[in-house]
# Entry
Amino acid sequence: MGGERDRTGFGKLDLILLILLAAAKFLVHFAVNAAGAYGFFRDEFYYIACSERLAFGYVDHPPLSILLLKISRLVLGDSLTAIRVLPAAAGALTVFLTGLIAKELGGGRFAWLFAALCVILAPLHLGLNSYFSMNSFDILIWTLAAYLIILWIQGRNPVWWMWLGVVLGMGLQNKISVLWLGFGLAAGLLLTENRRFILTRGPWLAAGIAGLIFLPYILWQVPNGWPTLRFMAGATGSKMLEVSFLQYVGTQVVEMNPVLLPVWFSGLDWYLFAREGRPYRMLGLIYLSVLALLVFSGNARSFYLAAAYPMLFASGALVLERVSAGPLTLYKRGALLGITLAGGIAIAPMALPVMPVEKYIAYSKALGVAPKTEERIEIGALPQFFADMHGWEEIVASVAEVYRSLDVDDPGQWAVFVPNYGVAGAIDFLGRQYNLPAAISGHNNYWLWGPGDPPPENLIILGGRLDEYDECCQVYQAGTTDCTYCMPYEDNVPIFVCRNLRVDPLKVWPGLRNFQ
# Structure
């Protein structure tokens, strides 16, 4: 590539270009969030609530991302833009690492630039990096793991196994789906010429280090009755829609953008069948084995596989770099970049909240994209991903209006009982401006946190029917939620006032558990 080279193996210009691409990824998300986007995402309220109660574990996720959120809130504050700085940064680092992977596989400047661009434009990555969750860090962890695997393949240095163990352990403390990566790694070792290394200390060192880092979360499960296993059973049994092999693969093609299919598919082919890709075949087998595992589960979400694509973009970009070499190289590569950019920009509003809602609805209809959900729930005018960014201020304001009408003497005797962690988190976070009492719920970790200490004597209740609340000495409907673009099950929900509970909340609380 020419020019003075530094320790990364890039020329200075190359390194600057890669940093600029990573910065572009960060700035896209920062600008969208600074403009207000559509608002906080449902899960973000829950994660903020979790960050107020740091622990070694939570019902539905390990603690690492929550610790990072706590630090972020202390340093940057609680604005929408501030909450979403870390996922944007994780996306930028993923772009940078993808470029490094393309370079390590033997790609030139076009290969790593094109691979990085694919990560920037992939709709699933745009969506997952646009709000705070463990998914952004999961994608980064998988990409870093792939990079370390490549370095080990090239040098056979056991130190890379040690670092891989650290990365996998931190990944498990972020999201237990890294176990899928571990499964794929084991399959890749067994099914390739690398199987002989299973008898060396490297893989076992990595597994041991990862296990030690993950151990605190396992130990947290024991006294809490293994809630994560209960959560997974509840989510797969009653929440998620079943999908077939063709449906799942088709969703991957659509949600990674059909324009990018030739890139990642040729990358998979290179790992599996190309003579030059043979040393790295285990990376292709990681993708296939995890895909098979998710399809076999019958109800995996499409974004579960998103973390596996950066390594495919890297090898696919290498293939396209070589295919486009020769006569008219500049024109062929210019066409590749132009088509990829045009396709990415055209699909971006399906993943990023960049359009006014009415324009988005019209645009999605023009593209033939219908609102969708992967759960067993009714869908409205917006897909679930965008609908979950709407209605929270209106819901909390409706509850506040009811609360103001009560002329409460002792706020400590009241709580707001709600059906799910999204509403509970919104009440706790947005309700501060109204001095609302704390939210309680039987959903996931809110159930573990209990009904309060001391438990409430009076409740504001969202949802249900009037005749269900015979535990109240006095109960009446005092309001209704009203949110136009929220999920349908959050709209037109009755708000009840329940005075003077006849039962001890601590006694009925075990029966209110809802893990899913």
Q: What stands out?
A: Residues 12-350 form one domain. Residues 53 and 449 are 9 Å apart (CA to CA). The first strand starts at residue 414 and ends at 417. The chain has 23 helices and five strands.
